Structure formats: C-alpha cells, structure tokens
Amino acid sequence: MIGQTISRQSKQTIANLVQKRFSHDLIVSPKTGRTIIRTGGGGRSSSNGHVITVFGCTGFLGRYLVNRLAREGAHVIVPYRDEDDMRHLKVMGDLGKIVPMEIHLRNKDSLEAAIRHSDTVYNLLGRDYETRNFSFSDVHVEAAGVIAELAQKHEVDRLIQMSALNATVDSPSRFLSTKAEGEQLVRSIFPSATVVRPSAMYGQEDRFLARLAMSRGLSVRINGGSTKVRPVNVSDVATAMHLMLDGKNTIGETFELVGDKEYTYKELLDYIKETTNLDIGDLNVPKPVASLVAKAMNLLPWQTLGADEVERMMIDDKLTGAKTFADLDVQPSSLEITGIQYLRRFRTNLYNDEPLPKGTLNKKKVFHTSYL
C-alpha cells in the first residue's frame, strides 16, 4: 500500500515536470526555414533556442546587450581579444550559456569559428579613434564586410549592424564616413541586415556625460557650444536591439535611435553644472586649435580626445526618416530624470545624496556652504 502511494506520488511528480509547449514556443526563420524552439519556463536557466554571436561585446553597449540576451537563456558567443575585457560577461548567463572565443580581426578563421553555429549575429564593432594597429576603415568597413560575408556563408538568420547617427559617405568625419561605407558594404552582401544608428550614448561607463563633467568646458565648448545633439540612454539602445532579435518588422530596416529631447552642448553643460555643482568654464576653443591640441594629446600612452571627435562635435544630430524607437514600442528615457544616477559621482561628499536641485546654481551654493 505504501509502495503504491509512493508510486502514485512519483508519477504525479513526473507528470508535473513534463513541459507543455505551444505554438508561440516555435519560431521558423523566414530566411532559412530553421526552427528555433523555446524550452523552460523563461529566465536565464531556460532556453530561448537562439545561438547568438555579439562582436564588440566587451564595449560600452555590448555588456548591456549580452545581459539582456543571456537572461532569457540564449547561448551567447562572446568574441574577445583580451581575456580580462570579457570576464565580467561570464556571470551574465547560466552555466555554459556564455561562450568566450578568442578572435583577431585579421584572422578570418577565428571570425568564422565565432559565427559558424549561430543563428543571429550582432556586429557592435567600432572605434572612436584610430590607432597604429587599426584605422576606422579597418574596423568599420573591412571587418564589417568579412562578418557579413561569413554570416551569409553560414546562412545566419539575422545580422544586426551597428552604425552611427549622421553617418554619410561624404561626412567630414572619417568615423561617420566609414560607418556609412560599412553600412553599404554589409547591405550589398547581406541585404536583410538591420542597421542601427544611435546618437551619442550615455550611461554608467560612458564617454559622453562623464567627459563633459570632467572637461571643465575646455574640450566641449567647440562651435560655441551650439551643436545640437540628442543623447540616448545605452540601456534603451540595448533594449531596442534585443527586440530586433525576433522582430519581423525589423528585417532589412534602418533604425535611428535618439533620446527624447534635443540639446545644445551649452544646455548640456548647464544641466551638468546644476546637477553636480561643478564650476565648468565657459571658454570656447576654436576648431583649428582644438584639433591641434587633440592631435598632440593622442601622443600620450592613454586614450584621449581624438581630432575626429572634434570634427563630430561640429555636426548637428539629424534624423533622415528611418524607423525609430516608436516602431519598437520603446519609450526612450529622459536625460533630465535619469542623468543624476550617472553624474552623482562627480558631486562632492557634502551633498552627494541630495536630490536633483530645483533652484539655480547660486541657490545651491548657499545650501552647500551651510554645512561649513
């Protein structure tokens, strides 16, 4: 009798473990007819059936995207050049779900090994400045073309190519012109590729808000601070690119991802002043002088402001009519609301935990000195 009871309980336990599958658990690739089947109840310990390669995963945007992909149970291949740069990615997925693979951009076999078993490839590779080893063209054009060629060869379902807002072939900025050339090359090889053009991204480890806060105005008051920009939260861009994974309305499309509001550099500096109480100077640096200083700074052994970045700071952000966040049902974050969490570290210890100020800078100075 006891044995029968245990047997019935065991059968019931097994029955409860049997997974039910529904039509929405099955995805059929429109390009190759490959079936992708989800298993599990969702989350990092389940599987969404995807094997995804994320080139540029060790960069600013890459870590946010890998986190979103891995927490749904995708197998994510993370190509890297320096092992130390990818260690933080290992814990983003369940055991065995994050697969590191060493690559070199000029070693086609290593790139092919990273793509061979994937159904989706994200190419986030990019350089803000040129080095002796890699030029803008090497990374944005040649490497992008090789990745697109290998993706086509191995019948990858989706290729999502990272570009940049304002990318045009005739741009005075080599960064933007090579990004445009890369777009054209990728589309000629892989016509169904999705192209993403984000504006300047900000976040915890950015080189945008942090640079403005640390520069004291010397490197940003170029063009009189009148250049118009629409900075976007890196988390919003990662969310949008994650949605492109299974979004049929994104195949072969171009997306321009910008923030909810347009600012001039002067307005951004004023906002940073009010948020951090930093005494950012109002010195305007002429473009020729700024370019000369940037070239001299590039001789230092660490990365600094590049001459091409000075050129980009003269170009207003402009939309061309491509798809936006709205086509993905994503509402971009407000810099004025979320910016404090990225700028708080620049405050002094006397009022580090204070909320966003409502008054002027002068009023805050009175409040600040009341602690002395």
TrEMBL record:
One of its GO terms (molecular function) is protein-containing complex binding. It comes from the Eukaryota. InterPro entries: ComplexI_NDUFA9_subunit (IPR051207), Epimerase_deHydtase (IPR001509), NAD(P)-bd_dom_sf (IPR036291). Transmembrane segments: none annotated. This is NAD-dependent epimerase/dehydratase domain-containing protein. Residues 52-250 form the NAD-dependent epimerase/dehydratase domain. PANTHER family: NADH DEHYDROGENASE [UBIQUINONE] 1 ALPHA SUBCOMPLEX SUBUNIT 9, MITOCHONDRIAL, NADH-UBIQUINONE OXIDOREDUCTASE 39 KDA SUBUNIT-RELATED. GO terms for cellular component: mitochondrion. It comes from Podila minutissima. Pfam families: Epimerase. Gene3D superfamilies: NAD(P)-binding Rossmann-like Domain (3.40.50.720).
